[in-house]
Amino acid sequence: MNKPGFEGFGVEEAHGFETLDPRITKILGNLGIHHTTPMQSKAVETILRGENLLIMAPTGTGKTEAAFLPLLHRIVRDKPEPIALLYLTPLRALNRDLVRRLSWWGRQTGVSVEVRHGDTPQKTRRKQAENPPLILITTPESLQTMLPGSRLRKHLENVRFVIVDEIHSLVENKRGSQLSIALERLRRLAGDYQIIGLSATIGKPIEVAKFLAGSGRKPKVLSDKNKRLYHIKIEYPQASDALAGYTHPGMSQQFLARIERIKHLIDKHGSTLLFVNSREWAEHLGMKLRELGVKAEVHHSSLSSDVREDTELRLRLGELACVVATSSLELGIDIGNIDLVIHYQSPRNVSSLLQRAGRAKHHLGGEPRAVIIADSLDDVLESMAVIRLAHLGRLEHPTIPEHPLDVVGHQVVGIILENGCMGVDQVYKMIVGAWPYKNMGKQEFLDVVRFMEQLGYLRVDGGVIYKTRRSRSYYYTHVSTIPDELQFPVVDCTTGKRIGVLGEDYFYLHAAPGKTVAVKGQPWRIVEIAGDQVLVVPASDPRAEIPGWEGYTRVVPWEVARLVGYIRWWIANQTEKRKEVVNKLSAGYGVEDKICAHVVDYVLEQKLCGFVPTHNAVFIEVLPRCVVLHSCNGTRVNNTLRAMLQHQLGLERVVADPYRVLVVAPCLDPEEILETILSVEPIDVLDSLPDTYHMRHVAIRFGAMSREMRYKSPKHLETLASRYRNTPIYKESRKEVISKFYDPSRLSKLQENIKNGKTVLEVVERDVPSPIAQTMLQRYYWCLDPSPPGKPEELVKTLDQQTVFLTCYECAHSWMTKPANLPEKPFCPRCESKLLVPTVHPPQKIQRLLSKKTLEHLGEEEKQWLVRAKMCADLTLVYGKRAIHALSIHGVGPTTAARILAKMEEKKFYEELINASRQYAKTRRYWDK
Hints:
5 domains; Rossmann fold; 6-stranded parallel β-sheet; alpha/beta; 37 helices; 7-stranded parallel β-sheet
């Protein structure tokens, strides 16, 4: 008989499986399976007792069969009505794999197994509604569509068991939040069914188990105690003498060294998965490998499902040497035996490393082999930190979204569709039964219900919620919580096949006939834009552009960045000779001596500059044209720092990575950065954070905004914050953005540590960047103005584009603008006065003083502020825009500005501004605040 792709058996007598139905044990015997793992035995025992269970184990350890076979036993023995078992998987590709494996078991035991998802034909759907299977494999979104359905809903009343596969991929996003409420809705319909979750190794598994079981239930957690042995190596390829003078179109010597090493590993090992951190890198590396003759394909979510399925099949059949993938192949899709996993650049976090490395040798006893190809010394250090944390078992704790409001709005409509109407209290009780909503207050729930009523999707009368004519249409068209980006199909003219998509931003800004783009790992020339289709033919241009897709850089957790800082500190504080330090580092972190030597030299070169940024030392490195704030606190903390500086100092060109914040501004006073870091409350700055991208998607999920393209114009998007300010849309947008990208609580803790002396904060002034600063400047070179620093023309250009705040001295009206947008003699748009006070910071204090106006109501310091404001306004009245330029320079007050403004020759004027700013920079430590 044909055997399924079976995994995960082997180390002890099958005590768990011997208690199963004889038909199942006989099949196992025919397969030659006489042993189970301790995890499998314990799982069978717990499931047969009817308990809710989370099984947490690495990929390839047989957890699917450990969950499925005891439930199959119950179905074979008890002969329940269909649908008895609902098997939920996050990806359709997992559905295909599971159907093949589980259908085999169904045929052997006479149990029907079918699949249902968005692409299931209508004919099959009707058949399933009339004659449902005992086991239905489906997605969370398809469950949403089944719950209110009149025909299939009655069969869901029979559900006795639910398995949620790969639950770790759902708990941290709104798909999981939506699923948690759907499981409560299913419990109301079918009763308290038994639920089993399958998860890769994660931090804090009890939280995931509670998410699975819902509020008020006590699930069990079963972890695989046999730690899987991973062989993970870091490599840092350097341009060798052999490559000297050798060039390849579109590749630097360093990149060529890395791609040649990847090719060598693929040639040596055969079946290889090459993981990357973004779809852009997948396309880029896929194209470069194909240029070097490697049989490689690309796999990511922006490719069509047909293309992805074909790539999976060809890899499984051995027709491909390598697939370059993002997280689209991180989950347990069956792709055959993978000999090696390569990760280009650091995997960023421990969970991703283990999940991706585990795709190699995907069977029990197989020891995964993975190679990380680092592209910088920061990358090497970060990879060392990730591997160390993995060995210590310190995985990131999942961050479960806190009662997302847009999901509540949609789910309340679904609940009412199922029941016709329901009391407010009953609906609220069902919602808070879901674990992510356990702390949702009644008032917040009522606010969402009232908002949905305003939108016309619900009606509330006498404490009862009713459906409306618009309820059903809204519910079914808003089932997916995934941001709905417009995507334009790319079609190969030579075959008529769809090969991928272009994101809307790239399509509107760049797509044009004659342009060459990289899709599916190879270059294509656009020959025509036909409606919303992009028609292409194969091309050979190695400089093909990589289309931009929506998405964000993978987050580096606080724990990883802190360990990187600790490693720097350890190296900088060793007293032994360099060779001994290298040997110690190599032995401690399992990294080759030659790579450790690069790392040690990197840190020691930094030490020669007089400072080393570490886990407990933050430095402000002041350079001629920019400031680098060194902070080993991870992506989210540094994003919060970046937002603070932008908001408080009115800066625009500020970028952050996990170890630094780069501020590009002429003559920036580091004392202002110091004051901002020490005195500004992070959460206050984040109050204005909801960006239009996230607000638009939250509004769409609420059904308050159309998906149509015209509603994505910059002009329309700018109005969203004011339109939705006091609605659940604004509140949810802010919450979503902060939870994903910022960490105000940890930044507050950093501020506290600086104030109590646990963390150092110092200013360092340099003419040239330190090695660790240079790493960032090389990556973000586009932030720096290419013209030489200190020239008048550079200053004019910069000042014209700098954001300033203008406050009218007469009426206190304030607005934000750029000098480039102003006439030579600016005036107030409200009262037309030309007495304007320019500032580079938000002018709340000046507005407050101007509203008092009379000196007798002011203190001494306030009087000085008002006098200074009047001097600035007088200068703007006389000199217009040139006064605004002068007063925008750090260290140039109205007295200095008046002296310089008297020099009317333009070049001389701006040279004097530069000199005044430099003089202030030299003497600022002697000035009073």
